[in-house]
């Protein structure tokens, strides 16, 4: 039977000063190592064929009782066939890896926005993302690690504004969801996304459309569009001409204001809007009615600027310039609200649906709307240009009806 070392007391251990390893007893292999006056705990053990020395901390920072407890824990691992040094190293590596993965929601937002902003149309989009996240999310969860954000934390952000600022809250939820998805893909969190709507928050929050009615852009009623166009034609100025062209083409304000002469082929009666100027980032062909072509031919051209509707400094018109023009003409919708340029697209869509037999998808294509059905989009190769020309001509004729022919005077 091996000789058992005498178990030293804490006071006896404190008096040890001689260089070398001192067996303190109590736990097999526990020693106080003294080198150049520095004292530390060492556990000697044998693992397989290897003799090993495991440091347990310095003395007196780690007192005798704590050193013996650490030695006991190491012996438990040995009894289970585990090398305590390797086990400790694995814990350290896991802790370091966890620290490397640690990321606050605020920093995650910054990195996500930086990674995605090249996809966004303009700096305003980035500003909208930053403003909603900074105003509503970051004060609540900004300093939390993304791995610690769960459903309760997301609800703490959304609950205060879900019923009073529903549209903002809905957009905010989607942005939080995207940031957390990005964090998961980057290895900073695991599990399901607590900001997801379907199957998650839709069970806890009322549907946005149930508590906030969708506010459509004020649009000129179809029955009054000819009257509105006549008023526009009576007004001088580039803004009025741009609005008239927007009516005739059902385009977006930005597409009209940024239109350049090289995009047009008046002989072919076609306008090719490049992808970089489209909301969906896809090129869009617009068939031009005879009225649209006549309007374009009436516009002056400038050597120093290729804009079709230039502002005073040969720069694109501002969006407000078109809005101000509509306000001056006092165009009102059915509810008495002053109409806005974007509402002209709704007027066209209402005309196509209520006054014609053109298929809905043709009108949607004229508006450059994305096809919701992925299956239909996969099979849709063409853009119905020839058929859309007939539709846009009918629309132009409705907006700008030809004057009745003059009646010949009859001889008395």
From TrEMBL:
GO terms for biological process: DNA integration; DNA recombination. One of its GO terms (molecular function) is DNA binding. The keyword DNA-binding applies. PROSITE patterns: CB, TYR_RECOMBINASE. Keywords: DNA integration, DNA recombination, DNA-binding. Residues 215-392 form the Tyr recombinase domain. Residues 103-184 form the Core-binding (CB) domain. The keyword DNA-binding applies. Belongs to the 'phage' integrase family. This is Integrase. It comes from Variovorax guangxiensis.
């Amino acid at each position: 039977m091996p000789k058992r070392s005498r178990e030293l007391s804490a006071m006896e251990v404190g008096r040890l000063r001689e260089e070398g390893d001192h067996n303190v007893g109590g736990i097999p292999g526990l020693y106080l190592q003294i080198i150049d006056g520095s004292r530390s705990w060492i556990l000697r053990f044998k693992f397989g064929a290897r003799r090993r020395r495991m440091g347990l901390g310095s003395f007196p920072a780690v007192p005798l009782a704590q050193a013996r407890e650490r030695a006991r824990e190491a012996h438990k691992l040995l009894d289970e066939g585990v090398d305590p040094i390797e086990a400790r190293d694995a814990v350290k590596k896991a802790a370091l890896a966890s620290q490397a993965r640690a990321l606050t929601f605020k920093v995650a937002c910054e990195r996500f926005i930086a990674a995605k902003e090249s996809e966004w149309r303009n700096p305003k989009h980035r500003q909208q993302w930053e403003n909603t996240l900074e105003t509503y999310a970051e004060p609540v969860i900004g300093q939390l690690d993304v791995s610690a954000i769960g459903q309760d934390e997301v609800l703490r952000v959304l609950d205060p504004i879900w019923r009073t600022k529903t549209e903002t809250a809905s957009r905010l939820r989607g942005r939080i969801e995207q940031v957390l998805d990005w964090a998961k893909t980057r290895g900073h969190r695991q599990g399901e996304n607590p900001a997801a709507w379907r199957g998650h928050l839709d069970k806890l929050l009322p549907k946005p459309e149930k508590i906030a009615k969708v506010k459509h852009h004020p649009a000129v009623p179809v029955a009054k569009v000819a009257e509105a166009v006549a008023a526009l034609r009576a007004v001088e100025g580039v803004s009025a001409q741009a609005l008239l062209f927007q009516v005739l083409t059902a385009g977006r304000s930005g597409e009209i204001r940024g239109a350049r002469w090289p995009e047009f082929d008046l002989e072919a009666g076609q306008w090719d809007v490049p992808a970089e100027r489209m909301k969906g980032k896809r090129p869009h062909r617009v068939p031009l009615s005879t009225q649209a072509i006549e309007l374009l031919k009436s516009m002056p051209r400038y050597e120093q600027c290729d804009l079709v509707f230039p502002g005073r400094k040969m720069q694109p018109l501002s969006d407000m310039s078109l809005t101000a023009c509509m306000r001056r003409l006092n165009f009102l919708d059915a509810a008495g609200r002053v109409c806005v340029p974007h509402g002209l697209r709704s007027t066209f869509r209402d005309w196509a649906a209520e006054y014609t037999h053109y298929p809905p998808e043709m009108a949607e294509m004229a508006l450059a709307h994305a096809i919701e059905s992925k299956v239909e989009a996969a099979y849709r190769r063409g853009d119905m240009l020839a058929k859309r020309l007939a539709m846009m001509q009918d629309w132009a004729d409705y907006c700008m009806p030809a004057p009745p022919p003059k009646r010949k005077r009859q001889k008395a």
